[in-house]
Write a structure and sequence with these properties.
The structure is a single chain. With 398 residues, this protein is an alpha+beta fold. Helices cover 48% and strands 15% of the residues. The strands form 3 sheets. Strands 5-6-7-8-10-9 form a 6-stranded antiparallel sheet, with helices on both faces. A two-stranded antiparallel ribbon has the order 1-4. Helix 4 packs antiparallel against helix 12. It is globular and about 60 Å long.
Length: 398
């Protein structure tokens, strides 16, 4: 077995372990299964306007993002699955994630119903009263997250990601040594002028400053991305008297599992598709991304900013969880709404309002889809745990 094959085998085991740790982690790591379930068992879903969607809009993929000038806003953080498609898919995916997280926090079922109602209300409100920048009420969990995000600096990112502020990436559980071909390929990539331009564009750096690759490592990160190209690169930007360091994420662009509009014009290159979707849905992130080629594969390059963190829904009470759901509905509503004109936004909001049930403010298709997917995913999660446990306890050679 080659060193590459050994790495892939270990990464598969790590991915299985991560997905076995909780049902909510399983939801986050099973995008392909999500769309298979949706296609095979879902009731008839409404057809929203064709626009860029996240495609994997779960709770872990939303959070604070800094733009090139360091300004922070809550936006969608991961666009691997982005396509031009039906916005309903983002609503169901995030609704499922919120409901699953609520169950993980032992919140009562009535709270889950309220979460879905307020989530849709926040989404519709963002469409009806569209403002590109966030001016909505921020619940306490979001206020805390933003305060924490804004205070973060390079040393926090370095200590968190590479465990030190010294200019090297320490090898260990999170970072593995790259092959010679991988290191050479990344060095060649960082020698390109367009990479230098995008890295010096951020935080008012000297646009003419040279960029030097200092260190690189294979990054054991994420869940659905495990087993694909994923590297952390540490680069030095020499601005004369002062030198700054930046940590760059290199991630493979892979085919999306989310169904797309067959008539839509999208980039055929998967990295270019991801960058195009990010520019439409999450401007703070899109302006920091670059589509490139590495070892013959499409990759997305972006500098990590200290302010880029996740939203933590652990240990939330019912009221905070409901308020958070409404706010995140607004985040997704703005992401979708900025792609539509005023008439299209209002028409889509009206269409959603028509689908409400008699005893529930959330659309009936959303409620039934989330309930069905929760039960299906719970069974799949338990089966995954059983298979993983059997694999772990099997004796060698059997």
């Amino acid at each position: 077995m080659s060193s590459f094959e050994k790495r892939q085998s270990i990464l598969t085991q790590i991915r299985n372990l991560k997905m076995a740790r909780s049902s909510h982690r399983y939801v986050r790591g099973s995008t392909v299964n999500f769309y298979a379930w949706l296609e095979s068992g879902a009731a008839k879903l409404p057809k929203g306007p064709s626009l860029w969607i996240c495609g994997d809009c779960h709770l872990g993929n939303l959070g604070p993002l800094a733009d090139a000038k360091g300004r922070v806003a809550i936006q969608i953080r991961d666009l691997d699955q982005t396509v031009i498609g039906n916005p309903v898919h983002d609503l169901i995916r995030l609704g499922l994630s919120l409901a699953s997280a609520a169950r993980g926090c032992d919140l009562p079922g009535v709270t889950t119903a309220r979460i879905l109602e307020e989530f849709v209300a926040g989404y519709q409100g963002a469409l009806r009263e569209f403002v590109d920048r966030d001016r909505s009420h921020r619940p306490k969990p979001i206020q805390r997250t933003l305060r924490h995000s804004i205070r973060r600096r390079w040393r926090h990112l370095a200590e968190e990601r590479i465990e030190d502020v010294e200019p090297e990436i320490p090898l260990g559980d999170k970072f593995w040594a790259p092959t010679a071909a991988e290191r050479d390929g990344i060095a060649a990539l960082f020698g390109q002028e367009r990479v230098r331009e995008i890295l010096t564009r951020l935080k008012a750096r000297d646009s003419k400053a040279p960029v030097q690759l200092v260190d690189v490592a294979y990054w054991v990160k994420g869940c659905s991305s495990l087993g694909r190209i994923r590297f952390a690169a540490l680069a030095k930007i020499d601005e004369g008297r002062a030198a700054t360091y930046c940590l760059v994420d290199l991630k493979e662009g892979v085919p999306a599992a989310a169904p797309c509009d067959d008539k839509a014009a999208m980039p055929r290159d998967n990295a270019e598709r991801v960058v195009a979707g990010a520019c439409a849905l999450s401007p703070n992130l899109g302006e920091r991304m670059l589509a490139a080629r590495l070892l013959g594969k499409a990759v997305v390059l972006r500098e990590l900013m200290p302010q880029d963190i996740k939203i933590d829904m652990d240990h939330l009470g019912p009221e905070d969880a409901v308020g958070l759901a409404r706010y995140l509905g607004g985040v997704v509503g703005r992401a979708h709404g900025r792609q539509l004109d005023a008439g299209e936004r209002k028409a889509w909001a009206r269409d959603l309002a028509k689908c409400r049930g008699k005893s529930l403010d959330a659309p009936s298709w959303l409620w039934s889809s989330v309930v069905e997917l929760l039960s299906v995913h719970e069974a799949a999660y338990l089966e995954h745990c059983r298979r993983f446990a059997l694999t772990q306890t099997a004796k060698p050679g059997r």
